[in-house]
Write a structure and sequence with these properties.
Structural class: mainly alpha
Strand order of the largest sheet: 1-2
Shape: elongated
Largest sheet: 2 strands, antiparallel
Number of domains: 2
Oligomer: single chain
Radius of gyration: 35 Å
Distance between the termini: 107 Å
Order of helices and strands: EEHHEEHH
Strand content: 5-15%
Length: 146
């Protein structure tokens, strides 16, 4: 006789003595485990359901945050994604954009004027940020020197 561990539908555990083959016992155990899993999942989903008060608080929070989400998507995400798309296209104002892939970037990185402009921009930025702290420290003494 085989001993099979099973879980009854009422949640109690029991050990049964059955006159069945080990394969049949394994099949029954797998079936009962699946039934138990489905029942436990249903209980979890029922516990996860929100009360009317929680639903109202969620709705209120979504209403208060929706202007920010809309503003973020309209004024930040759309322009960023549009700029990325247009940078991958051959675009003329009078004609629809034609997708060219990374050809624009390849052409840009091969241009000597781009590298010179990049160097001028970064070096002037470093020069300005390096002199700014000293100017900030001298500014109050210039105002108080009268």
């Amino acid at each position: 006789m085989e001993r099979v561990w099973s879980r009854a539908h009422d949640g109690g555990d029991k050990i049964s003595n059955l006159n069945i083959s080990p394969q049949e016992a394994l099949t029954q155990v797998q079936t009962r485990v699946q039934i138990s899993y489905d029942r436990d999942r249903a209980i979890f989903l029922a516990e996860a359901a929100m009360s009317p008060l929680e639903r109202r608080k969620l709705f209120t929070g979504l209403c208060f945050s929706s202007p920010w989400v809309i503003g973020l998507s309209v004024f930040l995400l759309y322009p960023l994604l549009a700029a990325l798309y247009y940078s991958l296209c051959d675009y003329s104002v009078l004609l629809p954009p034609v997708f060219v892939g990374l050809d624009n970037y390849i052409e840009l990185f091969q241009d000597k004027l781009f590298w010179k402009s990049l160097w001028n921009t970064t070096s002037s930025r470093w020069a300005r940020s390096g002199s700014a702290p000293s100017w900030r420290s001298r500014w109050p003494s210039c105002l108080n020197s009268r």
